Amino acid sequence: MSIGIGVLISDPGQYEQTSVFLPDPLIKTDLEVLKRDILFIGHATPEDNEFTLWLQSKLKNEGYNCECDLSFLLGGEADYWKNLQDLLEYQSIKYILVVSGVTFNKSGVLDEWEHCKSIERQYQLKDFIIPVKVDNCPYNARIGLNRKNIISFENNWGEGLKRLLRKLAFDKVPKVAANTNSIMDWYDNVYTTYSGIEYKEKDLFFSNWLKIPVLPKKVHFYKFYNDEQAKAVVKNLVYPGYRHGNMIVTFQKTLNYFLADENLEVQPIEQLVKDSSDALQWYESDSFPEYHDFRRLLVRLLRECLESYLKEMELKIYELSNSNCYFFEHKEDKAKGRFMLNGKPKNIGVSGKYYDGFWHFGISFRPMLYPELCFSFKSHIIFTDDGIKPWTDKKQMHSARRNKGKTMYNKEWRDQLLAFLSRLSNTEADEIVLTVAEEETITLSTTPITFEAKFSYFEPNDEERLKPIDSYLDEEEFYDDEEGGNSA
Fold this sequence. Notes:
Elements: E1 38-42, H1 49-61, E2 65-68, H2 69-72, H3 80-91, E3 92-99, H4 107-122, E4 129-133, E5 151-152, H5 157-170, H6 182-190, E6 197-198, E7 203-206, E8 209-211, E9 218-223, H7 227-234, E10 241-244, E11 247-250, E12 258-259, E13 264-265, E14 270-275, H8 291-312, E15 316-319, E16 324-327, E17 337-341, E18 344-348, E19 351-354, E20 357-368, E21 374-384, H9 394-405, H10 410-424, E22 431-437, E23 440-445, E24 450-453, E25 456-457, H11 476-483
Parallel strand pairs: 1-2, 1-3, 3-4, 4-5
Antiparallel strand pairs: 6-25, 7-24, 8-21, 9-11, 9-14, 10-11, 12-13, 15-16, 16-20, 17-18, 19-20, 20-21, 22-23
Helix pairs in contact: 1-6
């Protein structure tokens, strides 16, 4: 049998890849560096199967070579434990242990845990074991566990995944080709008995992407002598734009250069006009703006355009860690969002009573140029006492959000987004028209981009269904405080 040998590089535990074969067990390997590129997920079966397959699908889609016993076992293996032992010892670069209240009640998991600790010591692999906690089990559920860098998925699977990916990137874990089909593999594995997925039916999937059909043709750059001049002139903008150093970026074709406070006029030292379509196709240039710079500048300009419109609509703002969340004020005579779904009209509100206060559906967003030219939305729930001002206590907000979120599943999130977009419309044709320059507009539909799925999903009605995964929220500051430094 071939042996996979590499050359030790500067970071112990990181290996130059040369072969995919396991080493011959008769050959001494203590001083040899073996190929390691597999992430192996250990977990309690069957209790944590669903989370494990979800995590495996996400890691595969990120390009990692990821295995667990549900995919590693094909059936008919003569010696499963020997195969697993070899895979962990010679090919795995990380052992991800799913930690829950039942994990260490499983003899198989205990064997894996002890074996991986010995591998970590023998090969001096830094952070070879990465525990991921999925429920409220204690951090010291097993001797030595609390000394590991535990990543919590307990409150939010999406946040836990982001932290795990950052850890893998920091440790330079190698990637292979991304597996775009892994989510279907996940469905096939999880839903071996009927649980709402119906392959005989097709369904329409509503994305969170709002397509930008046409961009304004030109982007205008006005360069001034210094930053201070640009700061002064940008205040005169009639249409959306922003200052980039000593330059103003806008779709606006002419500027007012008169500074009323100073009673003088400041002229730009240079003007540049560029086709907006250039940001959508590669070009080479040694002069400003280069391709990647132009894309970033256009994305920011598009953000300014939609933010300007949302502020004109007098939406309220809740500040997130790296963006703003916009929501409608709650009023007793609130206007509801009206939209069509499956040929039938629906009319629902995007705010309501929550005990002595109010809940509000809100959105944050970012422009995208690829794979679609669109605005990508994230959904949030915001809470207020008076229908206007968001709570300032992040932990209180988080607790209420989780409580309210238990009643909201796929169709509720979809309907809230459709109702919200409907309320943003400023035309009888149910469109959102952003005026971005003289005789220049961006017209958006109130219906996101849709996709036809080759299967349908019928949500169960009983109370035992899974709690929703609130993967829309960016609350890293809260989780950092809550986990007491145990996260990656």
